[in-house]
Amino acid sequence: MVVKKVMIHTDHTQAELTTYFLDNSPEMGMDRKRPVVLICPGGGYEFLSDREAEPVALRMCGMGFHACVLRYSIAPETFPTALWELAASVSWLREHAQEYHFDEKKIVVCGFSAGAHLAGSLGVFWNREFLSELTGLPKEQMRPDRLILSYPVITSGKYAHMGSFENLLGKDSDDEQKREFVSLEKQVTADMPRTFLWHTFADDAVPVENSLLLAQAMREAGVSFELHIFPDGVHGLSLADAETDNGTGVQIVPECAVWPSLAADWIRRG
């Protein structure tokens, strides 16, 4: 396994991309190409959750995928800094696809909570002029092939997780137009990549309506998605098993712990 830290630069920040790339072997095919899953931990754009970082990467590796974790900029940095870092990270992966044996058609961005808002932002903005002008990168170079969005922050409207948007835009920001711009269900087009969504009905921090609103917008745009809504489980489950429990036991929800296998099957299909 190739484990290393890659520095991702903008004009004023530096993010850290940690790789967990599987080695090829003569016994299993030296030319084997695997999907790569780029993980964006959550934390309300205020901190980055370790529970949604390396444990998820190792689970993805255990299912036969390359993985990496992006530790992106958070408050007091504001939009679109983290988006720039994520776009540059996808570009770096695409540039190094041959070296590390990636399947260039399966660069998957996987986000949790606010990290899922970041992943979704790249999904809807990858081919917008403002992002290519900001990053200086070709649009296709920044394009994620698929998204996995776990209990995502999506809307800045009625069902918003307001703390995430305050941190993303600045606590003193009262720019309604900008708040609307980062409400992702309003930015979906047919160019958004196919998406795997999961949420719990019981989530009282980021209501399930966030996933439902995005799914409805994707349906209207003709974008393929797979959506799983589990009845029980608090916000921030990560793997929903003992590996990522915080010691309280409330984050162990066996019926939700199937989501990585469901997502892996979805990645492998076409």
TrEMBL record:
Q: Which InterPro entries match?
A: AB_hydrolase_fold (IPR029058), BD-FAE-like_dom (IPR049492), GDXG_lipolytic_enzyme (IPR050300)
The cross-references to Pfam families, in alphabetical order and at most eight, read:
BD-FAE
Q: Which domain of life is it from?
A: Bacteria
Record keywords, A-Z: Hydrolase
One GO MF term attached to the UniProt entry = hydrolase activity
Does the keyword field hold Hydrolase?
yes
Q: Which intervals hold domain BD-FAE-like?
A: 31-217
The name on file for this protein is Alpha/beta hydrolase
Species whose genome carries this gene: Candidatus Eisenbergiella stercorigallinarum
